Amino acid sequence: MAYIDWSSELSVGVNLFDEQHKKLVGIINKLYDAMKEGKGRNVLGEIFNELIEYTKFHFKAEEEVFLKYDYPGYSEQQREHSKLTKEVMDLKDKYDKGNIFITVEMLSFLKDWLSHHILEVDKKYGPYLKQKGIS
Ligand SMILES: [Fe+2]
Asked: In this structure, is residue 87 part of a structural domain?
């Protein structure tokens, strides 16, 4: 079973961003699986980096669309994005300096981190972008 299951409740109503959110879910699930399989620091660190890189890519893609369509929540989203990017990078830092395992707490943090981003922040842009003809 996957650590996080994608469901329609997580949809923000914009296909492109749903797909990118699914990819983020996928990377966190991959990290979980690798931890369960007892993979070593190199593998875990690589997946962690993949998560950071894809997060940056995803936030940038969202911000470009917000700018293009004059989304009024742009600066709030931008603040949230830098906060979330910093949080995931801090976590990676903690992992690098700490023990060789990814802990249950770290994974549960990432799960909450992603749900917060999707459910409490991104859900707000769906209706606005839809009205602009983006789906
Ligand atoms: Fe997002």
From this structure: yes
